[in-house]
Amino acid sequence: MDRDQYFMELAIEEALKAKEKNEVPIGCVIVLGDQVIARGHNLRETEQQATAHAEIIAIQKACKEIGSWRLEDCELYVTLEPCPMCAGSIIMSRVKRVVFGTHDQKGGCAGTLMNLLTDERFNHQCEVKSGVLQEKCAALLIDFFKKLRLKKAKQKKIKKEGNN
Predict the structure, then answer these.
(1) Tens digit of each residue's pLDDT (9 = 90 or more) over 14-70
(2) What is the mean pLDDT of the chain?
(3) Which residues lie below 8 Å from residue 6, measured CB to CB, with a gap of 6+?
(4) By the 8 A CB rule, do 92 and 64 touch?
(5) What is the arrangement of strands in the sheet containing 35-41, beginning at the earlier edge strand?
């Protein structure tokens, strides 16, 4: 297993923690050198906070860990392509490199809808690598949303039968 796959597996472990909490299974780890300095997973539903994305949580922990808002020598591994908010936080915290698992067709800002991370109009750009353990990362999300849709359909059916 190569280095990127190893750290993506750790991000997947974080995504599984989110899934256990009925959160969208997205996980993130931040690495300095060869050491994980921060971990995060989605907590939007748990905390009822729009900003409680895996990347934001991990960035906050990493800054606290190293005692600086500048994460210039850090790499961020995340299971899903960063959204605009997370991409902005990545740029503002000066992360050196971003590695993500699967693309986000609805909100991806690391190449899918736009690429904020390499936009030269900003004063900082990141190296970006996509598709690391893509199938595994995508499967987590596909399975989660499939089960969620089935649950909602079942609840709708029960409610409809109760009204008859």
Answers:
(1) 999 999 999 999 999 999 999 999 999 999 999 999 999 999 999 999 999 999 999
(2) 95
(3) none
(4) no
(5) 35-41, 27-32, 74-80, 97-102, 127-130
Q: Which residues contact 106 (CB under 8 A, 6 or more apart)?
A: none
The DSSP 8-state label assigned to residue 42 in this structure reads: -
Write out pLDDT tens, residues 68-91: 999 999 999 999 999 999 999 999
Binding residues for Zn(2+): 53, 83, 86
- Tell me how long the chain is: 164
- Rounded CA-CA distance 57/54 in Å is 5
What span, in angstroms and rounded, lies between the C-alpha atoms of 130 and 125?
16
Which positions are annotated as active-site residues?
55
Structure-token match 């600086």, residue found? 68
Distances (CA, A) of 19 to 23, 72, 101, 140: 5, 30, 16, 9
Q: Which two tokens stand for residue 124?
A: 């900082």
Q: Extract the annotated binding site.
A: 53, 83, 86
pTM summary value: 0.93
